[in-house]
Amino acid sequence: MPYRSDRLPQFWLLQLVGWGTYALIVAIGVAPHLRRHGLVAFEVVFVTTTFFASFVLRVLCRRLWKQNTPWSGAMFRAVLACGLLAIPCAVAAQLAELIVGGIPITWHSLLAAFEGVLYAMFIFISWAGLYFTVKHYEALQAERERALQAEGLARQARLETLRYQLNPHFLFNTLNAISTLVSEGDASGANAMLVRLSRLLRSTLEENTVEEIPLRREIAIIEEYLAIEKARLGSRLTVNLAVAPDTLDVLVPTLLLQPIVENAIRHGIAPRPEGGTLAVEAYVADARLHLNVSDDGVGTQSTNGQQERPRGGIGLANTIERLRVLYGDDHGLIVKWPAEGGCRIEVHFPAVLAVHSIGNLK
User: Fold this and answer.
1) DSSP for 322-342?
2) Model-level pTM?
3) Is residue 7 within a helix (H) or strand (E), and if so which, with residue range?
4) Which of 2, 65, 68, 160 is deepest in the core (most CB within 10 A)?
5) CA R_g for the chain
6) pLDDT tens string 100-141
7) Crossing angle of helices 168-183/113-165, nearest 10°?
8) What is the C-alpha separation between 291 and 330, in angstroms, rounded?
9) Domain locations along the chain
């Protein structure tokens, strides 16, 4: 479950413990002077008004936080708000002291509230600083949890891909194709296919993998896989890759395309006697990377509106979850079933270049 950075129970816990501790300290300080009723009234009203004013300050601070206001700007606005909130709190406390103590209310006596204003401002500024500190800490914890979750999902994707690649049916077909090449005297072709198979398996067993890799590495993995499937299916499989050059250094989730491509071939093209065409498209528009995988295999909708092809099962579900973890709501994944047949999956998310890349996105 995602880490929530705005949890009400935690706010109430810190609010009550903090103000309770402050009230206890004030009570201890006032205890020896209980006969000074004006002083007691001042402290009671001061603590009460500042406590309730902190809720008003919280509304402002939470709004600034949700608007992603820079820390300096957020604190500047918070300080101004602290000053405005401090004045009525100090004046109310001063009036309570004057009334309970039987002291005439004059402008001169009210000026004594200035010290209380400064004290209240100090309390409010400390409160706001603590609020933003806690929020930044929670955001850091959420980022760490997001990274761990993404790493776990990427590992799961590699294991799912490896499980399919080690599937006896897949290996049988691949080894059978290699055997056919050997029997036909095509030793170089058989050796090339063995090399592709080893590279494909190695790509999913790398220990030091990361949650995101440049698209060029993802395309290289796809090309190894497609080369094996092309050798196995022959003329039944046609592949069209349309990858724009400016997308090659854009970061993508590890093994993002492979389960989608595998699903298209396994459930869309391979079941058709005449085969079909697989198309992979990548381009950048409006600072977003768009990845489209489509095929013209089986997958048209039946008369009752139900899809006739499996939609990828665990592989596609894993891809959807990883996109959510990495990009939150700032991504899209759409599965389309064209009327003429086949399936089309469209994915888009922010285009972020790898660190080593130099250049501007169009």
Assistant:
1) HHHHHHTTS-EEEEE--TTSS
2) 0.54
3) none
4) 160
5) 33
6) 888 777 777 777 778 888 989 999 999 988 888 888 888 888
7) 50
8) 15
9) 8-144, 209-350
